[in-house]
Amino acid sequence: MKTKLITFIVVAFLGIQANAQLLKKVGDAAQRGVERTVERKVEEKSEKETGKAMDSVLNPNKKDKKKSKKEKSKKSKEDKPIIDNTGNSSAKTVKSNSDFVPGGTVIFSDDFSQDAIGDFPAQWNTNGSGEVVTIDGLNGKWLSVMHNSIINPVMDKALPENSTIEFDLYLQANNQQSTPFIQFGLTPVRDILKEDMFYRNRFFINLHRYSEKDGQTLEYGLKNDVIGNKSDFPLTKYANKVLHVAIAINKTRIRLYLDDNKVIDLPRALTTDMLNNFFLNNNYLIPASEIPMFISNVRIASADVDARSLLIKELMDNGKTSTSDILFDVNSDILKKESFAVIKQFGDALVQNQSLKIKIVGHTDSDGSDADNMELSKKRAAAVKNYITENYAVVGSRIQTEGKGESQPVAQNTSADGKAKNRRVEFIKL
């Protein structure tokens, strides 16, 4: 073994002599560094490590170059803002290029926060079964809907002919199980317990499975006939992630947006009676889906009357106005994107009328302590002001802010509807 080691040492030093001219160009400091490397490697006790020493002499920069590339690549990835599957950036809010605009007047909303785990939610109807659950790694509560079950929100009247529907789907997937065949759409049927939807002239959209095992298809149609499909939207990308669904209805026209991508735009697809009800279905196809359908954050709004313009009229005529359509994340001052269209009206009004000055007042419901609600209401008022000054040519000195917490309710805090009315933002003309 010693003989072999001496042989490699001799070869190593012969290599140094053969490359003397190259080392001289590198410089004395670099040469000493290479020699120290050789000496260190010579002390190693195996042929393999001695071979590495020779390699470091003959190719002194090879390892460093590879390391540099790896470090550069790592730094490049670390420098990018983290974006979650809902499209939110950890760095700064990115404005969407989508032309979807949420309706201004909310007529139904539910995030199941008022329902107990294990119960079927109070604001919904079903002909099957489901329960409110939580999902590891996701915020809030979700409605889990079992196979062959239809659900629909309970509303007093049909949808307006100009309206929007939004909700989140969690597309759980496990290659050992069949994923749901999810269907949603519009139907004339008002009571799904008493009347079979299957034979009625409904409009439907199918997410025809979404895992690599099952493949992907998005279909749409009328009654039982598929009239079109889309294969270019990457449904499989959303397996075990949240997909945001948005629907815009304009009389006979329907547009579908999946995570802000417009997927369907049909100008003559709907009839008036289809607006009687909105439904979702963990479909009846065989074999049965072994994984539930999960839904949350439902928002249905009217776009018939531009209530936002009426807010500005009320502000100018009466000196103040109030809205519950400016929404925030739960117990947070982070604005939801559906609030931007409402705030835009105030931003535009301030830009058009340079003499206008306003006070923004935040209000909360009674959940939580008085002190926490007071602080939250102040932060929410400030968040609305900041959005206006950051997105419109309006100086901050024209806007004052104040928080009232839960001290000035306009409805009882004993119901979800009353609490929603109390969570409002007030605008006062100065």
Tally of contiguous helical segments: 9
Strand content: 25-35%
User: Which series of helices and strands comes N to C?
Assistant: HHHHHEEEEEEEEEEEEEEEHEHEHEHE
Distance between the termini: 93 Å
Biggest β-sheet strands, sense, barrel: 8 strands, antiparallel
Uncertain stretches: 4-16, 18-97
CATH architecture of the largest domain: Sandwich
The count of domains is 3
CATH class of the largest domain: Mainly Beta
CATH superfamily of the largest domain: Exo-inulinase, domain 1
How many β-strand stretches? 19
What is the global morphology?
globular
CATH topology of the largest domain: Jelly Rolls
Radius of gyration: 31 Å
Using brief descriptors, characterize the structure shown.
3 domains; alpha+beta; 60s Ribosomal Protein L30, Chain: A; 430 residues; Jelly Rolls
What does this structure look like?
The chain is α+β, with helices and mostly antiparallel strands and about 425 residues long. The protein folds into three domains: about 1-80, no CATH class; about 105-300, Jelly Rolls, CATH 2.60.120.560; about 305-430, 2-Layer Sandwich (60s Ribosomal Protein L30, Chain: A), CATH 3.30.1330.60. The chain contains nine helices and 19 strands. Helix 1 (about 1-20) runs parallel beside helix 4 (about 45-60) and helix 3 packs antiparallel against helix 4 (about 45-60). The protein is globular and about 65 Å long.
